[in-house]
Amino acid sequence: MGYDIERFVGYVNEGLLCSICRDVLEDPLQAPCEHAFCTACIHGWLVHHSNCPEDRQLIDVSLLRPLYRYMKNDLNRLQLHCRNREYGCEMVCSLESIDRHERECEYSQIPCSNAGCTVQIERRNLDGHLAVCEYRSRECPNGCGYTILSAEDTQHNCVAELRTELELLRSEMICRVEEAKHEMESRLDSQRRHMVQKESILQNEIEELKSQMSRMMSDVRSLMAAERQHRQELEQAELEKREL
């Protein structure tokens, strides 16, 4: 649906009216035949039809395009009254800025922010209403810290509330202790697994070093045997040389 034409100041060009709802275009789209529509209007129309409501030419959602720039500019320059005019707002501004104004308008009817309260109040009067709203929250005057949300809560039992609060704190403390305990156990278990893994790696390295030492000792013994054999051969050669 478009903007109610009665809200506008002065003449509104026919080309800026929606061809379906006949109000001033809101979030406009344009068909290839150049007829313009509010987005909500044309989408609703095309659910049951496949042609332009003006000239009956075939159209599809994929063929809809944004409004021409010059038409968009003309549309944005239109002046209109705030929708809260009936509540006393006298603001007149351009269509381009009307949404921003109405989001912040002091005459807008907004719901009370207190849970359970169904009152609709003007934005400018909200603070005054909240100060006296029967659903407003406030602390117990006896100092127990209980938050009073309604008239029935004023007769609450402070001792019972404090006991309840104490039980909640105790439960929360137990939960936190358990969480800390589980976290420490998890860390210790992780460190234990890491140490076992490290020990296994070190043990493998030691076994490898022992194996290398064994091979080196075997090589040394082989070299010493070869040296003795070589020395014997030299002695034998020296003896034969002397005999000759």
TrEMBL record:
Keyword list, A-Z: Coiled coil, Ligase, Metal-binding, Zinc, Zinc-finger
PROSITE patterns: ZF_RING_1, ZF_RING_2, ZF_TRAF
Zinc finger (TRAF-type) residue numbers: 101-144
Pfam families: zf-C3HC4_2, zf-TRAF
Domain of life: Eukaryota
GO MF term set: ligase activity; zinc ion binding
Coiled-coil segments: 192-243
Domain RING-type: 18-56
Domain TRAF-type: 101-144
GO biological process, alphabetically ordered: regulation of canonical NF-kappaB signal transduction
Protein name (Swiss-Prot/TrEMBL): RNF41 ligase
Organism per entry: Origma solitaria
